[in-house]
Amino acid sequence: MSQYSKVLLLTLTLGLGWSCANLNAQGLGNSPYSSLGIGEFYGDAYSDNSGMGQSGVSTASGFQINNLNPALWVRNRFTTLDVGLVTQYKDITAGSDRQTNFGANLAYLSLSFPVKPRWVIGVNLKPYSFVDYQNEAIKPVIGTASVARYITSGKGGINKASITNSVQINKYISVGLESSYFFGNARRSSDVNLVMPGENPDDNYLVSLNQRTTYSDIAFRAGAAVRIPIKKENKLNLNLGGAYSFSTSLNAENTTTFELTQDSFPVTLPDTLNNNQSGSLTIPEQYQVGASLEWPFKLILSADYSRQSWSQYRNYNNLSESLRDVNRIHLGAEYLPRFTSLNYFNLVRYRLGFSYGNTPYVVAGRNVNDTNISLGFTFPMGRGYQNFLSFALIGGQRGNSGAGQVKERYGRAVLGITLLERWFVKQKLD
Hints:
Blueprint: H1 3-23, E1 40-41, H2 47-50, E2 79-94, E3 97-116, E4 119-140, E5 147-168, E6 173-195, E7 205-231, E8 236-245, E9 248-262, E10 265-266, E11 271-283, E12 286-295, E13 299-308, E14 326-335, E15 349-363, E16 366-381, E17 387-398, E18 407-421
Antiparallel strand pairs: 1-4, 2-3, 2-18, 3-4, 4-5, 5-6, 6-7, 7-8, 7-9, 8-12, 9-10, 9-11, 12-13, 13-14, 14-15, 15-16, 16-17, 17-18
C-alpha cells in the first residue's frame, strides 16, 4: 500500500467514525411515521445492494462488502474498507398540507479482513433507526374562548456496532454470525400552549411533558449461503442464501419531566415524574431468504423475500402500538459489460432494482405500504482499479393522502467508497 493510500485510509476511518458518532441521531429529515415504534429504519443494504432493490441475500461479488447476509462477508478475500453516505429529499402531503425537506447522514462504516483463506472478520458501525418528527394542531378549549396549540416532537435514534465472523465451510457453503451492540436514545415531548383571548401572547402558559429513553443491549444475526454450479467451468451458478435476526429485548432507561412555564419563565419548579427508571423494548425477529442466478463477472439476477414480526414489538410501557408484521419483496439485476476490457465503461457495473411491501405502521386501520425503484453504478478507480466508487439512486412512495394517512414521495441517494488492500497476503522471496 502506498503512503498516500495509508493516509487516505486512516483519514476516512477516523473522520467518518467521528461523523457516525455525532451525526447518526440526526436522521434523514422530518418523518411523521417515525413517531411510531422505534422510528424509521435505515436498512442493512449498502450502496451496491441499494441499487438492486435492496436485494442480494444470496450473492456477493467480493469487490464490496455485502451486509445483507453475515455468511457473505467471507467472499471478500482482501482487506476492505467500505464507507457510505446517504441523502434524502422528501415531499410530504397530508390532506391540503404539504412540506418538503432534506436530510443527510453517514450510512455505514465497515472494515473486513481475512484472518485465514476461509475465515473473514468484519467490524461495522451504522445507524439502525431514527426518530425525527414535529406535529402541530390548534384546537379550541371547550367551555372557554381560549384555544390550545398542541405540539408533539421527537429526535434521536438507535445505532448498531457489530462484529461479524464469516467462514467458508467448503467450496460451496459459507456461514456467518453477526454480534451487535445497540445503543442510542430518543427524546419525545408533548407541549400545550394555552392562548388566552385579549392577553399579551407572551403571557401564555406552556405545559410540557418531556421524555428521554436511553437504549443499550446486544443482539445476534446468523446467515448461510450456498453456491451451486449449474454449468461447468464456473459459467453459471445458482445461489441460495438466508439470514435470521434473533429477537432481542433492549435495556431501556426512561426519564420523564413535567414543566409549566409562562413567557419562558417557570411557574413552578420542574417535576421529575421518573428518573432513569429501568425497562425494556422488544425488537422482533426477522428472516430474509433469497435466490440468484450468477454469470460470474457478467450478470446477476436476484430475488429476495424478507419478513419481520413487528406485531411482537413492545415499547417501554409494554405496549405494541398496533404495529404489524412487515413483508417485502426485493428484485435486482447487476450487469458488467466486459470484465477483461480495456474500455473503462465496460468495467462499470450497472444495476436496476425494485422493492415493494408494507411498513410496520398502521393508520386508520390500513397498512402504510412502500414501493420504490432503484438505479446503481459502481465505477472502478485508483491504480489497478482496485478501489470503487458506487452510487445508488432510489425513488419511491410511502403511504397515501387518503384515509388519514400521510403520503411521502422520496428520492434517496447512497454514495459508497470502497478501498481494497492485500494486507494479510504473505510476501514470497525468490
